[in-house]
Amino acid sequence: MEKEEIVIVVREFDPSKDRVGVEEVERKCDVGPSGQISILTDSLGDPICRVRHSPAFLMLIAEIMRKTEEEREIVGMIRGCIKTVTCGKKLSRNDSLKTVPVSTKLAYILGLRVSPFYRRVGIGLKLVTAMEEWFREKGAEYSYMATDKDNEASVKLFTHRCGYAKFRNPCILVQPVFAHRVPISKRVRIFHLSPTDAESLYRSRFSTTEFFPRDIDSILHNRLNLGTFVAVRSSDLSVSWPGSERFLSEPPESWAMLSIWNSKEVFTMEVRGASKVVRGLAKTTRMVDRAFPWLQIPSVPELFGPFGFHFLYGLGGEGPDGVSLMKALCGFAHNLAKEKGCGVVVAEVSSREPMRVGIPHWKRLSCDEDLWCIKRLGEDYSDGSVGDWTKSPPDCSIFVDPREV
């Protein structure tokens, strides 16, 4: 009998013929702790949705070709995107007391999947290597990826075989959307900024933050961006927004801000594998909450079917009341998510972020320590005043781009 020959081919994703095969691999690669509870992601018919809004993006697939049977099967995929971000800061030439951002061209890898039956035969490595070749062609200086720190297979692939180093450990904070609205104190005033005013504030106050995107204006004008909001004490500002120029020249003692990204329009998620007991308890909390809403019981939303979420990004603030103002903004974001039919609200911040304590979340749904790994793609880049970014110590804050969630 003739021996079957198998060839692995890595090529660019073709939406006209590869979508079904890619979705099948995604279903086979549901991820979850200890293999018990898994999270299914539905890309709503657009496998490139999680990178599509970036300045440059690419999706590659790995395909098994059996010569004897003349069959093809998609067994893996990877997505990547490139942007220019802040990697550090230096003193201004014109003002020795002012710091200005130092930028680099950064690539991001996400959505690496390999069918369970074809793992540990080098397909993941082939996909990463091919994606990195595209990164280099486009002039990217660094590449990074994010994964669960307990995902041993992923961590081992990137750190042991692909040359990545563990870099940052942000925390993912997840808050359920309850059946009742979160009350907002009358002592807090919340303003909805125009994209232009929001850009002015971000470039003035956040431009030296690690991973701050140079094209922040593109994010703020994107149709998925639901707005940027600033909270102040009612006694600090008049009823109307004074404009970004005046706000920056005469800022209140305390303020907080964040932006909201509508991930619900990009993809949905679904929790699978939960026991009947867990599902029953969750249902009971919702029933009691509906029957006695005045008790404000923190019910568990319906997460065992498809649900969407809003992502909070660009979180920051100043002053003695900054944390409490951030909490009020998160309450406002919760109420907006409730109106839009979301299941949860998500934020990702540095573990050292001063505003973190003002972000409500459920520990059971959140991740205290995500893992970002980074790699320098070439040695012919100028270190400048930052040096090798992969060896730099973490700052207090990071800017998480909502286009890559």
From TrEMBL:
Domain N-acetyltransferase: 8-189
InterPro entries, sorted: Acyl_CoA_acyltransferase (IPR016181), GNAT_dom (IPR000182), Plant_NAT (IPR052810)
A single MF term (Gene Ontology): acyltransferase activity, transferring groups other than amino-acyl groups
Pfam families: Acetyltransf_1 (PF00583)
Keyword Lyase in annotation: no
Keywords of this entry: Acyltransferase, Transferase
This protein's record includes keyword Transferase: yes
Family recorded in the similarity comment: Belongs to the acetyltransferase family.
Protein name, UniProt field: N-acetyltransferase domain-containing protein
Organism name: Protea cynaroides
